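Please check the following.

. . .
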Amino acid sequence: MREDDAELLKVAGTILVVEDEVLIRLVIAEYLRDCGYRVIEAVHADEALLVLRKSECEIDVVFTDIEMPGSMDGFALAQWVRTNAPAIDVILAGSVNRAVQAASDLCDQQDHVPKPYDPQIVHDRIRRLLASRGSRKRDLQSALEQAHTDGARLS
């Protein structure tokens, strides 16, 4: 096992793939499963919202197409996630010219993937997001432990 593979096993999480084109969705979902992620698939943003609203589904990353049918597109879904579930990272995928600017407004600058995309690029972006999330959690845990220790000294 390569060092990168060992790192992935530490940060593997749950990915919600939102894509209306069935063949594209099946390929990327299967690839991500092969990489060790738990993958939940949604055909459009309305279906994704049903998944996101379920408390028993702990989603780490939403990987969504920009253009799809339904009451909202990928931009609106990303905005909903940002407002209602800010702990979930979002990666937008699309070929729309306005995608780069909109994606940078809704996500980190590196979280837009142009279509057609290479599944390995998607995997690398997800792995980076989850790894940074892990370090943010460790930093928070250290701060909480330090505050608890400081509080115990004051008592």
Summary: Residues 94 and 115 are 5 Å apart (CA to CA). Helices lie at 3-11, 22-34, 45-53, 74-84, 99-106, 119-154. The chain has one domain: 3-154. The beta strands are 14-18, 38-42, 61-65, 89-94, 112-114.
